[in-house]
Design a protein that fits this description.
Blueprint: E1 2-7, H1 36-42, E2 54-58, H2 62-71, E3 78-82, H3 88-102, E4 109-114, E5 118-119, H4 122-137, E6 141-146, E7 157-163, E8 169-175, H5 180-189, E9 192-202, H6 203-213, H7 215-226, E10 229-231, E11 234-236, H8 239-243, H9 250-255, E12 261-266, E13 270-271, H10 276-282, E14 291-293, E15 296-299, E16 305-308, E17 313-316, E18 321-325, E19 330-334, H11 341-351, E20 361-364, E21 367-375, E22 378-385, E23 393-395, E24 399-407, E25 410-414, E26 417-421, E27 426-429, E28 435-438, E29 446-454, E30 463-466
Parallel strand pairs: 1-2, 1-4, 2-3, 3-11, 6-12, 14-16, 15-17, 16-18
Antiparallel strand pairs: 4-9, 5-13, 6-9, 7-8, 7-9, 8-12, 10-11, 18-19, 20-21, 21-22, 22-29, 23-30, 24-27, 24-29, 25-26, 25-28
């Protein structure tokens, strides 16, 4: 069985923590050490036999995904890059075509999992997957029905049909997100499950049903995989062919139309972390019901979620609230209305504000930079370069840069000269001069302070001549 991890999406309902360039699945939200993607991959450890995972992700997230797999010591994972988001049906189609190719024309079972779910009970999950695999091997397309705890209106539902005798059921019907009254009827009937978006099926069965019900998606993804190329540790599909695919979910494209759908109940502490109120539900709480992380002081505060990233946050007389502080934004909302943060996200998009997609600290394959201060014609950054890493050989048309080493040793190309700079040493790079920064150390990070000055300081004022990460200007 091949795990297929869907790692797209931006998790906008968890703004300001989750953003376009650093979304929730790449953050350690439900664990102090591991990200949600890493926890999803670790979830397959109890399954036997299981192949290395296939991960379908946004092209812009590829280096973070690759690094997180290295941190888990997951070798040879197939990391497939979506040139643009086209929803789950095309993403799964890419994985299915690639799985068949990797198996030399074989027909593996695929375990399809979103990268942003919490599953607390590993044993229950493993048992459910085992049952699902048995039915998948017989030609069924299995979806997992989350055993509902409340009459939730934020999820779609699956109505169970004929009992197959081992806990699984034929799917009778998929239902859209219901009203509160209808949701309560679903719960009282005992025949409905939340639609969790986790699947098990043979690659050939999925592709055959996709070809039958969504032939345009099938054809576009088949051609996209046929034109795929290796790029470092990643598989880059044909962007033009993939863009021609309709954007559709697996539910609409296949599952609601096939007669092969089977539902396996899953009662394993599932949560999709779709809002800050959901984050509160899965978080450890104090005696007053507060979920607290970071430098936080509370007085007469109850049942609230308070997150601090950089500053002391003090809450007095607060109840059922969400307070989230990051280095460039603060969000405050009643817990029951926390999903309405999407209204703020829409305003950020309309205004073209950087806080929509970027944090102040921006991660790159070589390390990260933090924009400490920005003013008229200047910007100050703190830059950290990982051991052995190097930024691209580049130049700028509109800005000069002054670098001061504050930690480690820097290997600096400035024009035609390459030098080593130690702590407290500096260099000046004029406008238009070719330059590069590297960390020659094998075990120590390099940190510098960079002061930029010029009439334009945007990140798009970079001409790359050489790059270790395939980003050189063509």
């Amino acid at each position: 069985m091949i795990p297929v991890v869907l790692c797209g999406g931006v998790g906008s309902r968890l703004w300001p923590l989750s953003r376009g360039m650093y979304p929730k699945q790449l953050l350690p939200l439900a664990h102090d050490e591991f990200t949600m993607l890493q926890q999803t991959v670790q979830r397959t450890d109890g399954l036997r036999p299981v192949a290395v995972p296939m991960i379908v992700c946004n092209e812009e997230h590829r280096f973070m995904v690759g690094e997180q797999m290295q941190q888990l010591d997951v070798q040879d994972a197939t990391i497939m890059l979506e040139p643009e988001g086209r929803n789950t049906a095309p993403a799964i189609a890419l994985a299915a075509f690639q799985a068949v190719a990797q198996e030399g024309g074989g027909d593996p079972c695929l375990l399809v999992m979103p990268a942003d779910h919490v599953i607390a009970d590993q044993t229950a999950f493993t048992e459910a997957v085992s049952l699902a695999k048995k039915h998948a091997e017989q030609g069924s397309m299995v979806t997992f029905g989350i055993v509902p705890k409340v009459a939730e209106t934020g999820y779609g539902y699956i109505k169970a049909g004929v009992d197959l005798g081992d806990g699984a059921h034929r799917v009778q019907e998929f239902k859209e997100k219901p009203s509160q009254e209808v949701a309560e009827q679903y719960i009282s009937s005992g025949n409905y499950y939340w639609n969790g978006g986790i699947f098990v099926f043979r690659a050939s069965v999925f592709l055959a049903e996709l070809q039958k019900f969504a032939p345009e998606i099938y054809q576009a993804c088949e051609k996209a995989i046929a034109g795929a190329e290796k790029d470092l540790d990643f598989l880059r599909v044909d962007a033009e062919q993939f863009a021609s695919s309709p954007s559709d979910s697996i539910d609409y494209a296949v599952m609601e139309k096939t007669d092969k759908a089977v539902v396996v109940p899953l009662d394993a502490g599932w949560n999709d972390l779709g809002s800050w109120s959901a984050m509160w539900e899965v978080s450890e709480k104090d005696q007053a019901g507060n979920a607290i992380k970071g430098d936080v002081l509370v007085h007469d505060t109850h049942d609230s979620h308070i997150y601090s990233e950089t500053k002391l946050v003090a809450a007095v007389g607060v109840k059922d609230m969400v307070i989230v502080e990051t280095d460039d934004a603060v969000m405050v909302a009643p817990k029951e209305q926390s999903q309405q943060v999407k209204g703020i996200v829409n305003q950020l998009k309309e205004q073209g504000r950087s806080q929509l997609s970027h944090h102040r600290k921006v991660y790159r394959p070589w390390g990260w930079y933090d924009s400490i201060d920005v003013g008229d014609r200047f910007q100050v950054k703190r830059i950290q370069v990982k051991p052995g890493a190097k930024l691209s050989v580049q130049m700028h048309h509109h800005r000069a840069e002054h670098w001061v080493v504050v930690k480690g040793v820097a290997e600096v190309l400035n024009g035609e000269e390459t030098t080593l700079l130690n702590e407290n040493e500096s260099t000046y790079i004029p406008i238009g001069v070719k330059h590069a920064l590297g960390n020659p150390s094998k075990d120590q990070p390099l940190e510098i302070i960079e002061v930029q000055s010029g009439d334009y300081l945007g990140e798009d004022d970079i001409v790359r001549f050489e790059d270790n990460y395939g980003r050189a200007n063509k």
